[in-house]
UniProtKB/TrEMBL annotation, chain A:
<feature type="transmembrane region" description="Helical">
    <location>
        <begin position="240"/>
        <end position="259"/>
    </location>
</feature>
<comment type="similarity">
    <text>Belongs to the ABC-3 integral membrane protein family.</text>
</comment>
<keyword id="KW-1133">Transmembrane helix</keyword>
<feature type="transmembrane region" description="Helical">
    <location>
        <begin position="42"/>
        <end position="65"/>
    </location>
</feature>
<dbReference type="InterPro" id="IPR037294">
    <property type="entry name" value="ABC_BtuC-like"/>
</dbReference>
<dbReference type="InterPro" id="IPR001626">
    <property type="entry name" value="ABC_TroCD"/>
</dbReference>
<dbReference type="GO" id="GO:0043190">
    <property type="term" value="C:ATP-binding cassette (ABC) transporter complex"/>
</dbReference>
<protein>
    <submittedName>
        <fullName>Zinc iron ABC transporter permease</fullName>
    </submittedName>
</protein>
<feature type="transmembrane region" description="Helical">
    <location>
        <begin position="6"/>
        <end position="30"/>
    </location>
</feature>
Automatic annotation (TrEMBL), chain B:
<keyword id="KW-0067">ATP-binding</keyword>
<dbReference type="InterPro" id="IPR003439">
    <property type="entry name" value="ABC_transporter-like_ATP-bd"/>
</dbReference>
<dbReference type="InterPro" id="IPR027417">
    <property type="entry name" value="P-loop_NTPase"/>
</dbReference>
<dbReference type="Pfam" id="PF00005">
    <property type="entry name" value="ABC_tran"/>
</dbReference>
<dbReference type="InterPro" id="IPR050153">
    <property type="entry name" value="Metal_Ion_Import_ABC"/>
</dbReference>
<dbReference type="InterPro" id="IPR003593">
    <property type="entry name" value="AAA+_ATPase"/>
</dbReference>
<dbReference type="GO" id="GO:0005524">
    <property type="term" value="F:ATP binding"/>
</dbReference>
<keyword id="KW-0547">Nucleotide-binding</keyword>
<keyword id="KW-0813">Transport</keyword>
Amino acid sequence: MLSYDFMRHAFVAGTFIAIICGTMGVFVIARNMSFLTHTLAEIGFAGAAFGVFVGWPALNGMLLFTVLSSAMVGQMSVKSARRESVISAVSALFLGLGILFLAISDQTSSSATSILFGSVIGISSAEVWQIAGLSLVIIVVILLMYRSLKFESFDAVGARVNGINGTLISIVFLVLLALSVSVAAQIVGSLLIFILLTLPAASAKYFVHGVFKMIVLAIIFALVGTWLGLYLGYLTNWPVSFFIATIEVLIFVAALWHARRA
Amino acid sequence: MNVQRLALSYGDEDVIDDLNFHLQAGHFLAVIGENGVGKTTLVRALLGQLKPKAGVIEFSEPKKKMKIGYVPQFRNLDEEYPLSVRDFVALSLINRRLPWLNKAEVQRLDEVMQQTNLLKIANRPVGLASGGEKQRAYLAQALINRPELLILDESTASLDNEMKYELLDLVAKFQHGQDLSVIFITHDLPLAQRYADHFLMMEHFKYTTGKIADLPVEQVEEQ
Ligand SMILES: Nc1ncnc2c1ncn2[C@@H]1O[C@H](COP(=O)(O)OP(=O)(O)OP(=O)(O)O)[C@@H](O)[C@H]1O
Ligand SMILES: [Mg+2]
């Protein structure tokens, strides 16, 4: 299986993606940002479609759109009153834009499905390097602000009292999230981002009760899903996203079951 | 700590005007007043989160910022809150950057957990802890960096009598053992009389201070 270039690329990229998704996911869950993550993914879809339209790699289009819009998304998350409906409106707008870009670019519909649902075949070695580089940036920034980010995410009131600049942390985190969404979409597609970005972390919190332990377990869950999903996809020729989704959901169900029993 | 002619406002809306009081190191000050007179607002000014409109807040060593531990009035940790009590308390260890705690930090954490009787439930998720245990966890988190002043904002409001005494006994132990000054915001007069040595009574734009023995109890109860 690993004698094929594209499978090797997919495994390496998937490994990096699982690591950053597990890590970021723990904070996404703690900060109640699952919904927002989904919105960013839809914005990412528009970005990828834009990329296809102008002839860029989809990843670059996604990075452009998600990073630029993360500031705006952050604004929305602050004013919580009308939050959900505003976020829905933004999602709708960007999904529409994405459909438009795909329609006016003379690409076949296969590029649309691979953006929406992910594709492992298309990852070039240059993209693997890019994914690895972006993942490293994300990990380094998280390490640098680990204790403040942890405090702010798990006890915003306490963090404020201790003089932590919550606004700064929120902005940096959103940019990191935008990067993570764009990177993760390369394997699972933008529609299924939360499979890797929220489910593993949501499952982990039912098993362990420390931030670092949650991160480690979430990474393990994400890795199991990604590796197994790629392997099963290779065996059956069915979509990898399907397998990853199913595995992560099974883990999540097991976590809920474990929590009820405990 | 010395507070002189302090005035605080949100925008154009004045909340506090011409407030004066003094807090000596190691003393226990009860702050009493109706809802909305500005008790929490005063705390925010002491913490430096709100700029005074007028007046000054002076600390004993003028140049050095005073280390303050604060247990806020509201905190929203729901049933599903995942962190263990121990990990929650450790959150405020933010003086170093590395993800893992060093030996001194672990030692300090264990010490505070022991002093606040949390060792037995150290690994329980905070979401499942009782109200009293949660308050003790908040207290431990506020004390772990060895503050010189501890501010409790209605920390006993949701506790039954036994738990109230347990929590404040703990606070008193820290006050006497480590020369900690305490500001305790409360509506509970008997509690204030039992633990505080001084009081600050806040009414709208009118403030009274004194020894706790001189607290005009009847007048307060009329309100
Ligand atoms: N961020 C804010 N912006 C504008 N006004 C505020 C703000 N926070 C508080 N206030 C107002 O300032 C006044 C004092 O509020 P504060 O929270 O200090 O009262 P309190 O004495 O702590 O009351 P309680 O006993 O209910 O806790 C209130 O009228 C409140 O509406
Ligand atoms: Mg208050």
